[in-house]
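Quick check before the chapter quiz. The format below is the same one you will see on the exam, so make sure you can read both the input and the output lines.
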Amino acid sequence: MKNLKQLITNYFLQAELNLKNLQINEIERVVHAINSVRQSNKVVYIAGNGGSASTASHFATDIGVGSLSRANPIRTISLCDNSAAITAIANDSNYSVVFENQLKLLGNQGDMFIAISASGNSENLIKAVNLAKTIGVDCYSLTGFDGGKLRQLTRGKNVHVETPIGTYGLVEDAHLAICHVITDCLRSLK
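Here is the expected output.
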């Protein structure tokens, strides 16, 4: 059996290294993009699967509800939160289009879509990004591991956490920290 203290120490050392290796300019780019969407009175859509779905919901709440005191709040929707829509789409079509079909219904030119994925290979997020691009929705992503297809699809608009494949907790921890710092930055902007 491995030494638990060593496992814990190693986890936190890797988490710290992941945060230190983030590209600040990539995060700053997302902040400015969200603020631009806010100023245009457009909508930010966010989605992910599993733990990333929780991060998407949390992030949408932080930047949306957290901006209600402003004259022009950030309009946000987590595409993970409407269980009736998700299950209807998954049942009537399949799970690979649950985000794509919601964007077909809701998305408009000038809106923004943020896909959150540790692997970067979730088919439903890839399909949503492809659809979003065709309707004029600007696409960004948060990825981990090697970034997968999602990182390639959102080149130049991606915040990447380079980690060994399979280290979901470390990626999800970093993604949540990124979302929190973006929220703090947005609160500081006019």
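If your answer matched, good. The mean pLDDT is 96.
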